[in-house]
Amino acid sequence: MSPELTTAMTTTMTTTASRALTGARRRAGLAVRARIAGDDAAARRQQIWHSEGERWNAPGDAIQTVNGDASMFAAGLTALLLQSLHPLAMAGVADHSDYRGDPWGRLQRTSQFIAVTTFGTITDASELIRGINNAHRAVVGTDYRGRPYDARDPHLLQWVHVAEVWSFLECHRLYGRTRLSPAQRDEYVRQASRTGLMLGARDVPLTVAELDSALERFRPELEASPAALDARRFLLDSPPVGWTDRPAYSLLREGAVAALPPWAREMLALRDGPFGSGPLARQLGRTGVSTLRWVLDAIDR
Question: pLDDT digit string (tens) for 240-271?
């Protein structure tokens, strides 16, 4: 066989393998997107990113950098675990949410909210927030100790906002594609404050320093209530994923837990996880996020 023919065959095989790999990445990316955004993910994406209208945020803004990054896959889990530690907020979720019966539906609604308020038009984002505020009117009750809760309580809404923003920013710091400067991190907190205020929270932080202080101030109110521990078992020990998805979920799980503050891991009895909370756990999280980013990059926006 001539050297020219050998080279041609090698080139053909390499090209074929590359195309097959790209095709596999794209299929995997579409499957992940459908799971996170729903079966109508393509239509939703068109509406959010490409519909005409003024937007709150622009490309290059810190909030688009963080909320559009694959680190959000771990960050969402971190935020849920952290938010669960407020007994009144968790009681509202346990009593009125269908996170157990329809976990993927809840995830899809949450991801849509973040996408619309981050990348969508002001009209669409404002309408979505109004709908959530209306739904919160029915979210009232008492926790396991008989203490009353109301989803419209500005203090509880502040906790949900603080825990979410802290988790998103921390997971991006650990697993994000790019590193934000201190000024950009402050910008993220400030830009995220708009949604928190529109949802009814008050005195939301505007800088990273204020965010850290707010998280610390809530600590005396936090506890691992029965509902919080039940949510932890559901999310970490018996997650709603099939066996084929377990390896990827396990990587995200380790990364999400490693991102929690040490005191939160202790409250949730997560000190003795299989990989702890040190560099190895963070590396596993980084691997899981990077893998998801790799397959999602194969999808054209």
Answer: 777 777 888 888 899 999 999 999 999 999 86
Q: Residue 84 corresponds to which tokens in the numbers above?
A: 């669960």
Closest CA to 192 of 72, 50, 296, 94: 72
State the pTM of this model.
Answer: 0.87
Contact by Cβ (8 Å): 179, 187:
no
Vertex 186: Cα angle to 108 and 64 (nearest 5): 35
Domain housing 239: 25-247
| Tally: H helices and E strands in the chain | 14, 2
CB atoms closer than 10 angstroms to residue 65: 19
Return the closest-CA partner of residue 190 out of 201, 212, 205. Answer: 205
- Looking at the domain assignment, is residue 9 inside a domain? no
Residue 71 lies in a domain: yes
The tokens describing 188, both together, are 């993220």
Partnered with residue 142 across adjacent β-strands are: 148
Q: Within a domain: residue 272?
A: no
